[in-house]
Amino acid sequence: MTLPKARFQNGVMNDTPITKVVCVGRNYAEHAAELDNPVPIQPLLFIKPPSAVTELEAGITLAEVNEPVHYEAELALLIGARLSRASEQEVEGAISGLGLALDLTLRETQSQLKKNGHPWEIAKAFDGACPLSAFVPREQFPATHRFHFSLHINGEARQHGDTADMLKPIPALVSYMSKHFTLEPGDVVLTGTPAGVGKLAPGDALTFTLEDRLSIETTVS
Question: b or e along 3-13 (b: 16 or more beta carbons within 10 Å of the residue's beta carbon)?
């Protein structure tokens, strides 16, 4: 298998492949509440493999999935330097790009797995479960960790993310991740989804924005 590589907005491919996507569940309190989940004391981490990564701009295909697929829009971080047990200060200089992603979820399967005390991988890490946008270089954003992103479906606002609402802010979150999983250059971090998740349907038109730096339109088939 050829590992996927992250893309930059100008079409340039990142030098190193994506070996994993490290994700966090319930990093926004309102999202935890809408699914009637408790807010975790520590970040709830899971991984999507390279086979989950697709190009968000190329569209989302549900034809091979036999149950409803839920969308979860998230801010994505492209890692540009190796991080292992990193400090928050080290994290600051290791983020090379910002983008957007969908954490696609088989909610019915996930609910059953949770009920039985089993891992979530089947519901979160299946092939195509991580549509990923192109990245904007980090230096094109202000030197802050507050970002806004949104998802509209068929012209209707569904999700609005403000990273100030994160339970674990970006530097602390990535530092925590690096204490459990070494992050390699080219890897991607998903930072959690705000409230407003729901089902996708064939024919849906999705519009994503990240500040005034990134705007993406894609469709579901």
Answer: ebebbbeeeee
**pLDDT tens-place string over residues 187-201:** 999 999 999 999 999
Q: What is the CATH number of the domain that holds 83?
A: 3.90.850.10
Residue in this structure with the two tokens 């946008």, named with its chain if needed: 133
Write the DSSP string, 129-188.
-EEE--BEEGGGS-SSS--EEEEEETTEEEEEEEGGGBSS-HHHHHHHHHTTSPBPTT-E
Helix (DSSP H) and strand (DSSP E) numbers for the chain = 5, 16
Question: Residue 104: left (phi > 0), alpha (psi -120 to 50), or beta?
Answer: beta
| Domain that includes residue 83, residue range | 5-219
| DSSP-assigned beta bridge partners for residue 116 | none
- What mean pLDDT is predicted for residues 212-220? 97
Burial readout 183-216 (b: 16 or more C-beta within 10 A, e: otherwise):
bbbbbbbbbbbbbbbeebeeebebbbbbbeebeb
Residue where the block lists tokens 């990240």: 210
What mean pLDDT is reported for the chain?
94
- Say how far residue 218 (Cα) sits from the centre of its chain: 16
Q: Which of 130, 112, 128 lies closest to 120 in space, CA to CA?
A: 112
Task: Give residue 192's identity as a one-letter amino acid code.
Answer: G
The token pair that represents 24 in the structure block: 């966090």
Q: How far apart are CA 132 and CA 1, in angstroms?
A: 18
Q: Number of structural domains, the chain? A: 1
